[in-house]
Amino acid sequence: MLIDFSKVDSFYTDFQIDELKKYLETMETLLKKELNDFKKRVNAAAKKIPNPQERNEYYEFYSDDYWRLDETFVRMVRNSFFVMAFSFMEDRLGDICDSLQKEHKMQFSWRDLRHDVLERANLYIKSLMGEAPNTISVWENIKNYQKLRNCIIHDNGEPQDEGLISYAHKEGILPAGEERLFLTDSFCKQCLDDFHTFFKELYDSFYKRKQPAK
Question: How many Å apart are CA 72 and CA 75, to the nearest integer?
Answer without folding.
Answer: 5
